[in-house]
Amino acid sequence: MKKTILSLALVAALMTSCKEKTQEEAAEAADAVGTEMTEAVDSAAATMDSAATEVKDAAKDATAAGAAKVEEAAKEVKEEVKK
Predict the structure, then answer these.
(1) What share of the chain is helix, strand, coil (3-state, %, to 5)?
(2) CA 21, 24, 26, 28 torsion: positive or negative?
(3) What angle do CA 40, 46, 50 make, to 5 degrees?
(4) pLDDT for 7 beyond 80
(5) What is the C-alpha to C-alpha distance for residues 47 and 74, in angstroms, rounded to an integer?
(6) Distance from C-alpha of 73 to C-alpha of 65, rounded to nearest angstrom
(7) Each residue of 59-76: b (16+ CB within 10 Å) or e?
(8) How far apart (Å, rounded) are the C-alpha atoms in residues 70 and 13?
(9) Distance between CA 13 and CA 3 in Å, rounded?
(10) Model-level pTM?
(11) Nearest residue to 43 (alpha-carbon basis) of 54, 53, 51
């Protein structure tokens, strides 16, 4: 009878210690996922900022090129009017 009770106590102790270890591992995994998600969001934000800057620069270049063409066309029209 003593052996049975001691065996059950040992099994209960092992289950309890395994449960704690599993909980610790789950907590660590959750922290790791949270960290990875934060890094992914930061990376995506940096990429979006970079893309927005590139689009902004391209728009400025296109506007400047368009303005130069309009100015050139206006000069040609003035010259045609003078003739």
Answers:
(1) 100, 0, 0
(2) negative
(3) 145
(4) no
(5) 40
(6) 12
(7) eeeeeeeeeeeeeeeeee
(8) 85
(9) 15
(10) 0.50
(11) 51
Measured distance CA(9)–CA(2) in Å, rounded = 10
Rg, the chain, Cα only:
36
Half-sphere exposure of 5 (CA within 13 A, CB side): 2
Distance between start and end Cα atoms, the chain: 122
For tokens 């009017």, what's the residue?
Answer: 81
pLDDT digits (tens, 9 = 90+) for 24-38: 777 888 888 888 888
CA 64, 67, 69 angle in degrees (round to 5)? 110
Distance between alpha carbon 59 and the CA centroid of its chain, in Å? 25
